[in-house]
């Protein structure tokens, strides 16, 4: 039988994409474990307290880095490669180099996390890994990005569509952000308030300009692909894209509200994050107007269900983010655990959910093996439930925390901490649920990627019959 | 190709078709249809409001893009400073009342006119009991009096008529006179003036100096 061009592409992607997905899964488990330890330490300070490695400050930072660079980075590599190759209609080339860059990336992150746990942490947000690993990370990313751009450059159809814009933009924006921040913080260190502004700007922009466009691009690809209809009001997509490009890096500085920086920085941040309503509205119109023409499919098709959960979460959480950027609200919530809400809604509720859907969509195509339906379903419901509990706990707990902390008459330890503590307990259980859910995801993925050597022993009669037939 | 022009007819996309359909959509001009105008108009209105709100916010909160926050205003006065400030305002106002109603006879320097109008500077009638000066303004004064050792008011045309000003103005002007030109007597409040006015409501004619001396024996020592 002659292979279709798409099967040829999938075959070319098999080893590379499998490698990235498998390592992304391992990092996800590592991050889940660290997240549980960090959450447990907040409710019980004596938990693992005799090990210096497991200090809360180190664990928390290691978790964020493992999650963003380990899980986020690897899954971005996998999804980018596959979507770019599929939309360009060309095979993935330079596979050895891609694997090479992937190995360097993962080794650098491993060393970086060990460095963090050993106490060699940098003080810049999302750049906490020790200085020495960054050149390695940058070079491996540059190799990957170059090869992905080569694939895109040799595309069959010269026209480009929304998923390509978003994915390629995120491909280029990450090294651009990194170079700007690294130059201002390490190569030519700035003085005064600039380093702290730059550090926050990088940490937040990383989520807005690397993870977010990636997930949006994946959603722009997978929704019309599964629904089988063109994106509704597609002419708005280009507007949404440039709005994100222009507004997002400005909007993130609203987190400095009330900080020791010139007043215009948070003021501009607030205004730009209010203006972010435009791209959020565009993306949500595009996704939901397309997907909800066929609700049955959204419900029954598991990858699509993951993606739509992600896009709804993106819409809601972004609007909530706009509200929390208003100065009057920010005064209350600025120094509370509401920041955890912002981080988790973006990387768990939005980015990861879309990536899960994307992985479930592409892995069967690449490997030719189906993933068990009930296992996928279990993963979806535990993930959705866990994320919901986690975000609600952080949101309500954060509001409680922020409002109580404003009242100077209250005794800190007896009233503020005791009223926030139940929410920490809830997040601890939410992280247990999420960890379980992610374990199921990794087992699902690994079972498909790595052929089971004992498969022949457990093969059922029906499968044998099918084989002989 | 006709199939690809109508996206709704395609059951499931291959990636190749997806690129083509969306690329076509990007080049396509949208013919206006029924209802097309209303929804965008609402959005244009909403987004216009949003941009307006953003601009106001920007103008209000950016501190004109200055590096440093505006200097804090020093209007945090201590209670004593507040009292002093209030008294100064009262005296300033009293000076104006004096210039309009009194200075034509008693002169701006409070020295009066020799042999016609008595001085206020250093006069016991002014600086002693608050009741004296207040009542003189309220009802006027006629007949002979002795001020600073000289006798005044021997001619009826030199009698003082009542000054028609309200309690607040009287309080202000008496306080001014009692503290100007080297005088240093206590402040007179509006409340005191009001009580003197009600006490003297029975007096229809101008006061005579001896009458006042009897009413306020602590005032003039003779």
Write the layout of secondary structure elements.
The complex is a heterodimer of chains A (469) and B (222).
Chain A: H1 5-43, H2 56-88, H3 95-117, H4 133-153, H5 162-187, H6 194-227, H7 237-251, H8 264-275, H9 277-291, H10 295-300, H11 302-325, H12 327-333, H13 338-367, H14 373-406, H15 412-449, H16 455-458, H17 461-468
Helix pairs in contact in A: 1-2, 1-3, 1-13, 1-15, 2-3, 2-4, 2-5, 2-6, 2-13, 3-4, 4-5, 5-6, 6-7, 6-9, 6-11, 6-13, 7-8, 7-9, 8-11, 9-11, 11-13, 11-14, 13-14, 13-15, 14-15
Chain B: H1 2-5, H2 15-27, H3 38-61, H4 79-101, H5 103-106, H6 124-127, H7 130-139, E1 140-142, E2 145-147, E3 150-152, E4 160-161, H8 167-179, H9 190-199, E5 207-208, H10 209-215
Parallel strand pairs in B: 1-5
Antiparallel strand pairs in B: 1-4, 2-3
Structurally, the number of domains of chain A stands at: 1
- Whole-Å distance between the termini of chain B? 124 Å
CATH H-level superfamily title of chain A: Cytochrome c oxidase-like, subunit I domain
Radius of gyration of chain B: 41 Å
Question: In percent, how much strand structure appears in the residues of chain A?
Answer: under 5%
User: How many β-strands of chain B, per DSSP?
Assistant: 5
Radius of gyration of chain A: 22 Å
The SSE order of chain B reads HHHHHHHEEEEHHEH
What is the CATH topology of the largest domain in chain B? Answer: Cytochrome Bc1 Complex, Chain D, domain 2
Helix content of chain A: over 70%
**Biggest chain pair interface:** A-B, 33 and 33 residues
